[in-house]
Amino acid sequence: MADVIKVSDRLPELNGCPVRSGAQRFGDVCCIEEPQRSWSYTELDREVEALVQNLVKAGVKPGHRLIYDGVELVRELTFCFACIRIGATFVPINPRFPLRYKQQLVESVQPNWKVTDELVSACPHTIGSEPAGVVTGIFTSGSSGMPKLAMHTLENHFYSALGSQSVLPLYPGCRWALTLPLFHIAGVALVFRCLWFGATIVIPEDRAISPEWLTQCLISHVSLVATQLVRWKETCNPNFLVNHLKRLSGLLLGGSMIPSPVLQWLVDVRIPAWISYGLTEMSSQVMTGPVNPDGVLQILLPYRDIKVSEHCEICVRGKTLFAGYYENGRISRPGRDKASDDGWFTTGDLGILIEGNLQVLGRRNNQFISGGENVLPEQVESVMCSVFNLKECYVVARDDAEFGHRGVCFLFQDDLSEDARLHFRARLKADLPSYAIPVALYDLTDAYGKNCLPGGLKISRKALVELLYSGQAKPVC
């Protein structure tokens, strides 16, 4: 093992397929582990190469787009890296999306090929092909509307992995639980990092994990969303949970803004947790840092630049900045979209940058005006989660004849006591100005049941607004 770790200390090279590079550098080191079987780097390399030969015979060519709609993770990974070797673009989508919604996404991709867990099918009447170098297309979260297809080069993924490695290093012997889907940029970034640095990707059975499973499978690193951690806190013995989490080398939290009580608990019990700010367009992480009660990010990762405009909008650039959005048969370059001539990409996120430390405030297009005052839903949500100890909640604007807009809040009804429901506005007066306090509460359970999760990990505020105006939202009080 010591010899293998010594090999991994040399930085990888950007010279083609990461699986082939891994086979050359790490050989028989375990690359992927499932409950019933495992693959070394060499074995996975052979499977990818065999698939390449079959796909080329079937007619897959450089520049083709291949959309993947399935749940078999190892098959999905194999297709991803076969596409890279061929020069095709791999586009995974959420297999659990409603059929009509998936059809919309497929039509927007205009793929040459569609792959499921059983079939590979050619798609007729496809427009155009990708320029050389584009290897993946990942849909944005769609939390504010219809997802966009962000196109990435191998160089984007390489420098994303290299920058993350400088803060949370991986090497042979590290075991990262693949808890995030490949249709999300965080899941894709995790895979590339493991492959370039010789770690093992551990796939849990049925995608389900528990604190005990982390220990039983000798997991060293895991990525979680805040909701998952909150549920563990509620259902597990506190000492039991802390003991399991302290065995980790790294717990990476992301997906959305994390409630302050969760951050404070992680600090108090000394879990080796990291928080991060990232986006699909920057190939995952931009800034990161050890967990702290205020959620301040202290470390800018290498190969990225960040600034905040005079209007408090976060702008980013660097080697991880994506190639552009795919739309109507072409890629719109960031320079023609939301990036300036000097390479800055405006993220749509609001934040404060003081002496290199970043505080993310929320999304610009989530902001609304109530009685002439600006309301940032994410700040209201943070206060509500803290005051009422909520798992999650979402504030959206409702039209109001007097104030223009007033906020309403979606939350899980069972998370709020009867007394809190009746007096929630009074309980919030000490922490929020009156114009920011929601005027009504609605049950989030119904929202989850009505497919308000187009991005897979983040709920769609646009879908919540539509649910509200359709009259289908269930009032809590």
TrEMBL record:
GO molecular function: medium-chain fatty acid-CoA ligase activity
Keywords attached to this entry: Ligase
TM helices/strands, residue ranges: none
Residue ranges of every copy of the AMP-dependent synthetase/ligase domain listed in the record: 23-115, 133-326
SUPFAM superfamilies: Acetyl-CoA synthetase-like (SSF56801)
UniProt GO BP: fatty acid metabolic process
One Pfam family hit: AMP-binding
Keyword Repeat: no
InterPro entries: AMP-bd_C_sf, AMP-dep_synth/lig_dom, ANL_N_sf
Ligase recorded as keyword: yes
PANTHER family in the cross-refs: ACYL-COA SYNTHETASE, MEDIUM-CHAIN ACYL-COA LIGASE ACSF2, MITOCHONDRIAL
UniProt family annotation: Belongs to the ATP-dependent AMP-binding enzyme family.
UniProt-recorded name of the protein: O-succinylbenzoate--CoA ligase
